[in-house]
Structures are given as C-alpha cells and as structure tokens.
Amino acid sequence: MKLALIGTGKLGCALLTGLFQRGVLAPQDVGLLSRDAHKTCQVAGRFGAPVIGRGDLAGAEYILLCVQPGAFQEVAGWAGGHSAGYISTLAGVTTGTLSRCLGSERAVRAMPSLAATIGRSQTALTATPGAEAAGDLAFAQGLFGAVGDTYRIPEHLFDTFTGMSASGLAYAAVFAEALADGGVRMGLPRPLANELAQKLLVSGGELLAERPHPAMLKDEVCSPGGTTIAGIRALEGGNFRRSVIDAVEAATRRGHELGRGERETGDS
Ligand SMILES: NC(=O)C1=CN([C@@H]2O[C@H](COP(=O)(O)OP(=O)(O)OC[C@H]3O[C@@H](n4cnc5c(N)ncnc54)[C@H](OP(=O)(O)O)[C@@H]3O)[C@@H](O)[C@H]2O)C=CC1
Ligand SMILES: O=C(O)[C@@H]1CCC=N1
C-alpha cells in the first residue's frame, strides 16, 4: 500500500478527489482508516479505495494524517512507530510534536486547503531532517503539487499560512455571503445574488492574478466621485480591512493554541 489515509472527513475526501482525478494515485494504492466504520465504508464506496485496519499500517509506505488536532495524541498512540513516512495536515501540530509522539524521525507537516478537490490547493510544507533525507518531503511535494501549488515554509510561519490561506477560503465564503445579503437587501432575488457573488470572486481572483498588488484593481474600479468609492468608504467605516487582518491574526493564534494541545471547542 502506497498510502494509508487516517481520517476521511472533509479534507481527506478533498485530497482523495483531487489525487484520484489527476491520476497521481489509484484507489487501490490507498487504504482508508477512520473512526466510524459505517462512514468509512461510505467513503470507500464513493472512491473505490479499500478500508484498512490498524494492523495494515505496518504495510504502508506513507501514512497521511487527516484527523482533528484534538484526536492526534490518541491516534499517535496506535498509528505511531511504523517504518512509514508520516505526513500530517493537522493545524498547529509541529514537526517536533509529530516526530516525538509518532516515534519516528520521518515527519512531514503539510497545510493544504479544501481547494485540493479542484486541484487549486495552496499547500505549505516543512519536514524533519529525517523525512527530508528519506525523500518524504519530495514525495509530499509531488502529492500536494498534483492538487495545487506547494510552498516550502519555515515552521514558525506555518500557523500564519494556515490562518491566511487554508482558513482564508472560509473568509472568502463569508464575504460572498455578505455581498449576496447586500444584494438581497437592495432587492435582488436570492439565487441571482448568490450567483453574482460567486462569479465575482472567480473573476476578481483572475483579475488580481494579472496585477502585482490588489490595490491596483481597487483603484481601477473606483471612478472619482462614483459608486464604488462610496461603497469602499462604507467598508472602511465598518473596519473591514482591520477585521480581515484581525481574522488572520486570531486564526494564527488559534493554530498556536491547537499545537499546544488546547481543545477544539475554543476552551483555553
Ligand atoms: N477542513 C479544512 O479546510 C482543512 C483541515 N485541515 C486539517 O485537517 C484535519 C481534518 O480536518 P477536517 O477534514 O476538516 O475534519 P473532519 O472532522 O471533517 O474529519 C476528521 C476525520 O478524522 C476522523 N477521526 C477523528 N478522530 C479519529 C480517531 N480517533 N481515529 C480515527 N479517525 C478519527 C473522523 O472520523 P469520524 O467522522 O468517524 O469522526 C473524520 O473522518 C484537521 O486536523 C485540520 O486541522 C487542514 C487544512 C484545511
Ligand atoms: O479551521 C481549521 O482549524 C482548519 C485548519 C485550516 C482550515 N481548517
């Protein structure tokens, strides 16, 4: 077995979708292991990949962890100690913690996003020296590179990458929802408002890609004395940019907390 996937939730399934669509791995190369047997079987049926047991981990070349950070200690207790290379997608959990708790010198830390499902993830990567020497970082670059862009990031910036990029998809969704709400408030039918908001984010992203700084697009759209600058002024009044900056900071700090083993309920 090339890869054992532990955790077949939202991210695990997004990765399977992207990887199988691009043919980097075939379903028979991947074994699926999760907590709820019924749910795991459903995922196995959907992708055509086999369900495996804990005993099968000994035969895996790589073990990819996609469980919640709060489950890590328990999972490490039975998934650690194998000869496989370990790859973790867990928010906050450092390579040092991975290596220590899994009892392995081969630990890659990855931070992809749900955009893996459409081949557009931005994935941060870092690794222990042992993983790098064993070729595990190169393997991870190939794996995540097949479902988007990869970035080698120093570990001290990993939580920031998480709070901006992986979490950022949700901020974009909140913006789209709020924009559509604005359209509805001013009289647009909901389906049309939702469609406009979604397509606007796509076209906005493409236009931003053609410019070195986002402010250029903003300036081009803002006609002097026109409608857009009136809208921008209202955003400033609501501290929009400060709120977005604070969101990245809060998410980054939360990553630090999760790495220290604090609970996912928000308790500290
Ligand atoms: N969602 C996202 O956008 C991103 C998430 N991540 C990281 O990916 C990880 C998973 O997130 P996500 O997919 O959203 O979470 P989900 O809750 O959707 O999935 C978690 C999976 O882990 C399984 N699981 C939980 N506990 C255990 C256990 N003790 N033994 C075996 N399997 C277990 C769950 O099984 P069951 O359903 O049966 O409980 C489920 O299949 C997290 O660590 C997160 O930080 C990283 C980047 C992006
Ligand atoms: O919200 C979270 O903790 C995970 C990590 C990044 C995206 N989702």
UniProtKB/TrEMBL annotation:
One of its GO terms (biological process) is L-proline biosynthetic process. The keyword Cytoplasm applies. One of its GO terms (molecular function) is pyrroline-5-carboxylate reductase activity. Its EC number is 1.5.1.2. InterPro entries: 6-PGluconate_DH-like_C_sf, NAD(P)-bd_dom_sf, P5C_Rdtase_cat_N, P5CR-like_CS, P5CR_dimer, Pyrroline-COOH_reductase. PROSITE patterns: P5CR. It catalyses: L-proline + NADP(+) = (S)-1-pyrroline-5-carboxylate + NADPH + 2 H(+); L-proline + NAD(+) = (S)-1-pyrroline-5-carboxylate + NADH + 2 H(+). Catalyzes the reduction of 1-pyrroline-5-carboxylate (PCA) to L-proline. HAMAP family: P5C_reductase (MF_01925). This is Pyrroline-5-carboxylate reductase. It comes from Deinococcus radiophilus. The gene is proC.
